[in-house]
Amino acid sequence: MDREYLIKKWLNDDLTPAEREVFEKLNDYELHKKILEGAQHFKASKLKEPASIDTFYDRVQTHGVSKKPKKLRTSLVFRIAASIAILFGIATFFWINQDTTVQTLASNKTSITLPDNSHVGLNVASKIVFNKRNWAKNRELQLTGEAFFEVAKGATFDVITDGGVVQVLGTKFNVKSRKHYFEVQCFEGVVRVKVGETKKKLHPGDSYRLIAGKQESTTITRATPEWMDNITTFKSVPFAMVISEFERQYNVVISLDNIDTNRLFTGGFGHDNLNDALKAITSPLDISYHIDGKNHITMFYNHSKE
């Protein structure tokens, strides 16, 4: 049946039982019903016969359909107030939770002073993220890479990494969190380390390392980490980790020609001379190298050199 025909008959209360059944199944039946109920409250002097159904709807929507317009206006005020409150809450949330990020690129180091005057030395290709505005209530930051911390005394200070969580009150310590490698060195005070279910307490001179799933505890004698003096050292680590650190420090790409990257390496290299550093990591393993371009190096075993 024609929709407008049914609506006209319905407005005149002239629908047959069969037509009413069809009409009440229309998708917008409830809307028509509410409009008519609202229209019944208009004053007759202001309601003229509409030229069409669409004109009638337009007039009804213009004058409104509420029986209690005052209550409707009050509801509108509350909705506006609620919207303002929500927007204010969202703005406050982002203002409070806006993070500060400090990041270094390959071959670049930096240092930063935190809001409580704690100091962070950031090694190459590393990043810290913290909330500056909420720092007084929550001294917590996220670390990717390696950093040396001199923490001002105060509330608990947490360093969160993929490898584990380091917690202190006021101390000097170094955290290194790279792929398959996590190490914490304590230079002053007490450091608490949590890796999964494992908890360790480090005192000055203690070092904890998790490498390829294996935990190790050693001692250190220096007052600061070696990388701050432009030196990187390794003790029994896979050669692949040495290569990765070398690429970060010198911003180069190293290609390996049939090199066993699982061989363990103990030694180190300086950060201020590329050739000297290359010799330091290749000679102990009887490896040669060729600098192909500004940022590309190829390494190969001596016996395969033509």
Feature tags:
single chain, 13-stranded mixed sheet, 3-stranded mixed sheet, elongated, 18 strands, 306 residues, 7 helices
Shape: elongated
Count of helical segments? 7
CA-CA gap between termini:
92 Å
SSE string, helices as H and strands as E: HHHHHEEEEEEEEEEEEEEHEEHEE
Rounded mean pLDDT score: 83
Major β-sheet annotation: 13 strands, mixed
As residue ranges, the low-confidence spans are 42-50, 65-70
User: If you compute it from the alpha carbons, what radius of gyration comes out, rounded to the nearest whole angstrom?
Assistant: 36 Å
Task: Bin the strand percentage.
Answer: 25-35%
Structural class: alpha+beta
Counted beta strands: 18
